[in-house]
Amino acid sequence: MNDRRGFLKQVIALGGASLLANENLMASILNQSQVHRNDKIWCNLIHLSFNLWEDHDRLKDSPDPTIKARIFDDTLRLSDQLWEDSIAKMKLYGMNMVLLDLGDAIKYESHPEIAVKNAWSVSRLKKEVKRLKAMGIEPIPKLNFSAGHDAWLGKYSHMLSTDTYYKVCKDLVDEVVEIFENPRFFHIGYDEEDYRNQVFYDYVVLRQNDLWWKDLYYFVDMLGKHNARPWIWSDYAWEYPESFYSKMPKDVIQSNWYYKDDFSNLNDIAIKTYIKLQENGFDQIPTAGYYEHTPGVYRAEKSAEATVKFSRQHISDKHLLGFIQTNWRPTIEVYRADILKSIDLLGESMKM
User: Record's InterPro entries (predicted)?
Assistant: First the structure.
């Protein structure tokens, strides 16, 4: 921005008026507004829904911040103001993509029974999709169909791999594709489908072997008919590398994840997977993260910076589509500082 006054007017127009109340924050953002740009994706994950883990709320008083944050809630956990401020800050940094975790935060016309209380209407989501596009931020939908992260599906999460399950999933995907006006990507999650990640759940179920692949191919084929590339988290490759690299379609975008800032141990399976994905010709959007992991202990602040540096060294430009920052907390005011800081950390890495 060459004109400060015009810049401030744009911030207000973008719904970031509350940011102006903090002069120090605004001064910092103004200084960061001119960032290095290229043709890469700079994406931030925002949770509209956060019902991805426990299917009950009995652990809501847990001292562990991760467990406490992820308990099931039948009411929407979403601050409109934090949503607005997050998008405004992304715009200021020049980020060009937002991954929207939809889950049960939308009252779908095909399956309204899934929605939590106070869920967004379809018309509200359509309005936001259009607004984001007008801002130059590409909205990409995410519905996590991992059996370990599908509490948002309600009763249908107990019908895994049945005819009813397949129909409901197709209905939802078809509707979301229409709402997003034919997105080029569609994130289907597909991570952490094992017992270890469901140990506190009431209902524990997982697919393995050919059934896991059958259901994955169901979504891949479905999205192919919509000309949308499937996008998944890549940790299945950590446990089952042989089948992953022989059976995973190359059209599926891979987001391997590693939330630390020390990439020196190339034998670490999460780090090694970035290199193996490159060797096997997969397109990647590497994943960084920032959030309070255990009481008072945060995932590394330099995760985004380190991820960008490592990826540029080990992934070819052809297969490095961009980067994504994650913050695994609901979009509510108690996590405001952490969520906005995670955006700052990705913004800083864009200068590299």
Answer: GH
Measure the CA–CA gap between 166 and 164, rounded to whole angstroms.
6
Q: Give the model's pLDDT for residue 34.
A: 42
Under 8 Å CB-to-CB from 99, ≥6 apart: which residues? Answer: 43, 44, 45, 46, 140, 142, 187, 324
Does position 38 have pLDDT exceeding 70, yes or no?
no
Classify 264 as helix, strand or coil.
coil
Q: Are 348 and 305 in contact (CB under 8 A)?
A: yes
Mean pLDDT of 19-30: 50
Angstrom CA distances, 324 to 62, 102, 115, 224, stand at: 29, 17, 27, 23
For the chain, what are the domain ranges? Answer: 42-350
pLDDT tens digits for range 255-271: 999 999 999 999 999 99
Domain 42-350 belongs to what topology? Answer: TIM Barrel (3.20.20)
